[in-house]
Design a protein that fits this description.
mainly beta; Jelly Rolls; globular
Length: 121
């Protein structure tokens, strides 16, 4: 569905196909890769299994994270943040960051990007 044709729409997380990456799975709800194709808003859910470290990466737009379940570490620009269920974290645009889980916990995160983005790594 193109942005210009958008109308209110309700759907469930389970309606969205999981995109499997080497270190995680993602369900893109809104955005260019989303269940609903939007241009100025991208969001979804990502889950990292136990003992995973994401690739260090950055985005050309800011990213907000909300931890839905589990715990882990998010390294942002060299600063370590220990996060758990209920925590929010903001990652400014163009700042390197990664997500790390330990051997006793996975982490599930709701993410929001402040603009159009395409994730293929």
């Amino acid at each position: 569905m193109e942005t210009e044709d958008l109308k209110p729409e309700k759907f469930n997380e389970n309606d969205i196909e999981k995109k499997i990456f080497e270190d995680r799975w993602v369900r893109f709800a809104f955005g260019s890769q989303g269940f609903v194709n939007t241009k100025n808003l991208s969001l979804g859910i990502v889950e990292f299994d136990k003992d995973k470290t994401s690739l260090s990466h950055s985005h050309n737009v800011g990213e907000s994270l909300y931890v839905l379940a589990g715990k882990g570490v998010v390294e942002v620009g060299g600063t370590i943040y220990h996060v758990k269920k209920g925590d929010f974290l903001y990652v400014p645009k163009n700042i390197e960051h990664s997500i790390i889980t330990g051997n006793n916990s996975r982490i599930r995160i709701f993410f929001v990007f402040g603009g159009e983005i395409n994730i293929d790594y």
